[in-house]
# Entry
Amino acid sequence: MIPLTVQSNTMFVKAKVISEGSDVPREGLFLLDTGVRMTFFNTPFTAKHGLIRSARRTVENISGFGIGGAVRGVMGRVASIQIGDLEVERPVVQFSTDTKGIAASSQFDGIIGADILSRFHVTFDYQKQEMILQKGAGFLQPFEYDMSGLYFISGGEENNAFTVENVVENSPAAKAGAAKGDLLISIDNQPASSFTLETLKRYLQREGRAVTLRISKAGNVSNLSFRLERLI
# Structure
């Protein structure tokens, strides 16, 4: 059972962050949001503790979309996040560098999102101002990140048409010639329509695997072949 701070019906929890190459826990106050896909640290907390500098590998990429459009940031890892007596090891997180907006706030230190909370059975008790966490079946699964360098968005009537929205610099896909706007036709001879956005992301998280993407680029069809490699 984890004590919560509730402000204006919004739940916050104290947690400790240990950066890579360190054993010093940095305590912060974090908003809990099951709708946020990737846990992130606000700019003041990131800068104060040198989290980008201490991360062994980082990439700049889109982390999601909001009302204002694409949200971009620096992605990397920390050694662990501790919530109460529970410790989540080597999560992939976003380090904010925003100078305005919620991610630039110094009123709290970041958001713990669904990437971490989904590893637990979570019960929120507003009356007692507590959160109950029970380890789920996926608690020990390693955190992985895209290994191609491609960020896809989905569309179409059945949401199974995929277009490249961003390509990470110097990534395997970038070196193979992928570009924003490329439309995915198939991957390893499997039609793009047979994937969901989630299964496509997981398919591109298998380190060392050679993949061939058939894409349409401004109406011209071509193949892009490359080997997946760990970016973070």
